[in-house]
Every structure is written in structure tokens, then in C-alpha cells.
Amino acid sequence: MLAGAALAAGGLLIARVAPGDAHERLGAAHAEVNVLGWIGLAVLGTLFTLWPTVLRTKVSALTRQASRTALRLAVPGLAVAVLGLLLGWRQVAAAGMELYAAAAAVALAPLVETLRRRRPTTPAGWTLAAGVVWFEVALVADLVMVAVRPAAQAGRALETLLPLVLAGFVAQTLLGSLGHLLPAIAGGGPARLKRNAALLERGWRVRLAAANLAVPLLVLPVPGPLRLLGWALLIGSVTAFVVLALAVVLGPVLAGRPAVPGIAGVLLGCVLTAAAVVVAAANAPGTTAEIPRAGHLSDRRPRHDARRGRRTRSVPCERAMTWWSVVRFLHVLSAALWVGGQLTVSLVVLPLARRLLDAERRATTLNAVGRRFGMFTGAVFLPVQIGTGVAIAWHKGVTWASLAEPGYGRIFAAKLALFCAVMAAAAVHGWASPKGLPGLARTMAVAALVGSVGIIVLAAALPAT
Q1: Taking the mean position of all CA atoms in its chain, how far away is CA 462?
Q2: Which among 455, 428, 453 is positioned nearest to 443, based on CA atoms?
Q3: What pLDDT does 20 receive?
Q4: C-alpha distances in angstroms, 208 versus 56, 115, 155?
Q5: Which residues does residue 311 pair with via DSSP β-bridges, in sequence order?
Q6: Domain-by-domain residue ranges, the chain?
Q7: For residue 4, how many other CB atoms are within 10 A of its CB?
Q8: Cα separation of 352 and 346, whole Å?
Q9: pLDDT band at residue 23, thresholds of 50, 70 and 90?
């Protein structure tokens, strides 16, 4: 719940535009809320139970107390850090980061205690362990940057940590979780579970080494060829896992056995999201595209970009809450309601309906829920998102040419492409349901859901403008 609140707070911060140093401080606060609040709190909270499950041992006796203490330290620590960044108080921001770091150290106690009792023996365990280590490294680097740099410069400094967070922490946590859960979810009995697990474990040591070697090559100031090598290692490692995961899902189909549509949908959505994130994050640090920013100039006179020898359009300065702030708020609100509604139906309504209702009443209820949510989506959520999205892009001066440039343009293009893919999956789901194709309909529904979450991830990764 608190991680979701952090996501909403990050959306409100990015919806506010301010001039000069205030804009940079907003960007830094937005980055901290999303990385440490939305992602950090959610993943650390999950690891309390996922880590012992992966290691096949009981939950540590320290878990209950450690989780409560960590939460009581992390939330106020993050709040103090964000407040210090917003007000330009470096010492206050550093103190908040130290409090959050203390919370992370407390959260590690049950994980380490579990590790002492049972060492990881599976690829999922080692991958999750690597993700936790990179999170701690990113947290220490974040603390140092906030402590030694003025708050107005912290936002740009934190951009260099993007590959560390995405490749080292987020990607490995996601791959480790899927590596553990996928064979069990695929089902088919103990024999098939062992075969699927063995399939996913092929070459895991090489893949793990490649992914973790790629992280420093992407973060450190190394020559261009070495950075390219880092991207090749990372993409190769992720691609190999995706291929093996697809073999787990498609194996029953090729053998003439029934497949699991939900698993296929999850993988399809993850593939689309991973591809979009890779495209968006490529060359991000130090090569951000020069997208015109609202709130930096007081007139509409063109300004010259000395790096590229071209002129870009500027927009008026926004020194207070304006109608554009309302437009951005509506855009974030409609996206939250759209994705949140999908998650509520999939994770709350559907399981309860399957458990409490008979087949006939379940079908009637779910059809009514689907029609009503589809009505709101088509009549309210999507028109508001598309209309406000186009307006915001026009206001920021985004052009077709800028979509191909690294930084804001490429992330925005990846977000648009993923949105189109989600709309296509939703359309196929709407076509397959009345045609009596439940497997295809469910696959497309899950793919659209996972892709929708990916859209939110890319929206949070957009540089503050």
C-alpha cells in the first residue's frame, strides 16, 4: 500500500513544473520517491517471504520484528529525504537517506539469517541475491551523491544510477522471481516441474555472470566499446532467459498437451515490457536528448543547441499551478485508475469469484464486471489518457524526430509503442472472448495487464521536464 502511495506521490511530483533549480530539485525528489519508495519498498517487502521460499526453508524468526522496524524507519526516512531535496537542504536530505539506509540494513537481517541456515543452490536464489547486493550498492551510491552534491544537481547525478537500478536490481529480481515461480505455475505434476526447472537452469552460471559483469560496464565511465559490450552482455542474458521461459510455455503446445494461457500472457507482457525498457534505457546517462522543457524560459524565442547545431522551440515559464498542472494530474489519475482497475479485477475480484460463486453465477458476474469496466475504459479512461497525453506532448514540444533520440524521446517512444501493443492485445481479447476462444482471450488479457504495468514503469522513468 505504501509503495502504491509512493507511486502516486511520484506522479504528483512529475506533474508539477517549476523554473530553474526548483525544477531540478523536483526531478531529484521524483526519482527518489519512485526508486526507493515504489520499487524499493515493494521489492524489500516481498523478499521477506520470497527469499526463504526460494531457499526452501522456513521464514526467519526475525522477520516480523525486522519488517516492522524497517518500515518505521524507511517511510519517515524517505519523507525527510524528499523534503530536503524539494527545499534544497542537502544535510536534511542526507539525513533522510541515512535513515532509509538504516531501514534497508534492518531489512537485511532476516535475509542474512536465512542465508546462514541455507545457502542458495538454484539460479533463482543466486539471481535474487545479486539483485539485493546491487540494490545496496545503488543505495550507498545514492546516499553519497545526495550528501556531497547540492540538491539542485542531485537529479542529474542520479541519472547515472539508472542502469545500476534497472539492470542490477530490478531486472535480476524479476528474473529470479520468474525463474522460481514459472515451473510451479506451469504445473503438470512433479515430473514436468523438474523438467521445466532443469530447462530454465541451462547455462545459468554464464547468464548470471554476464548480467552482473554488464552492470559496472554500464555504470562506470568506461570507453564506448566497453559500454557496448555491457549492453550486449545484458541483452544476451535476458534474451536467453526469455527463450528458455518460452520453451517452458510452448513445450506442451508442441507436444500436443494443453498449455497455460495465463503463463503465456505473463511472458508476452514481460517480453514487451523488457524490450521497451531496454530501448528506453539505452545510452541514457550522459546522452539525454534535448527535448524542449516547459518552465525554463520566459518567452517563446527559439534557443540554440550548441551540441547539435540546431534550434529548439521553448515554451513559457510556469511559476505556479496552471491548467497544464491539471492536465498532467488528469493524465496520471486516468492511468492509475485504468491500471489499478485491471489489477483489482485480476487479483481481487476474479479469485474471489472463482472461490465463492458457482460456474453460472461466476460467468454472469464476471461478464457484468468486464462490461462495466470496459465501458468506463472506453468512455473515460482512454479518451482522457490519449487527449491529455497528446496535449502534454505538444506542450513540451515533442516532435517525431525527437522520438528517435536517447533520453526523454526514446523513453516516450517506447511508452507509446508499448501502449499500442497493449491496445492490440486488448482488442484481440475482445474479439476472442465471444468467439469461444478462452485460452487466447486469457493470454491476451494477462499480456495487456502486464504491459499496462510496464507503461507505468516507463512513465515513471521519463526524465522530469
Answers
A1: 12
A2: 428
A3: 52
A4: 21, 19, 30
A5: 304
A6: 1-183
A7: 15
A8: 10
A9: low
**Distance from the Cα of residue 463 to its chain's centroid:** 14
Measuring CA to CA, which residue among 143, 295, 163, 279 is closest to residue 217? 163
Which residues are registered as beta bridge partners of 304? 311
Question: 139-160 pLDDT, tens per residue?
Answer: 888 888 888 777 666 666 677 7
49 to 3, 46, 242, 329: CA distances (angstroms): 17, 6, 25, 35
> Which three cell numbers, joined as nine digits, stand for 83?
523534503
- Asked whether residue 36 carries a pLDDT value surpassing 50, the answer given is yes
| CB atoms closer than 10 angstroms to residue 131 | 24
Which residue in 234, 240, 216, 243 sits closest to 277, CA to CA? Answer: 234
Q: What pLDDT, in 10s, does the model give residues 177-192?
A: 888 887 877 666 777 7
Question: Residue 312: what are its φ and ψ, rounded to 5°?
Answer: -120, 155
Q: Is 367 helix (H, G, I), strand (E, B) or coil?
A: helix
407, 390, 341: which is closest to 370 by C-alpha?
341
Q: Which three cell numbers stand for residue 23?
A: 525544477
User: How wide is the angle at C-alpha 213 spanned by C-alphas 210 and 215, nearest 5°?
Assistant: 115
Mean pLDDT value across residues 228-253 = 78
Q: What is the pTM of this model?
A: 0.54
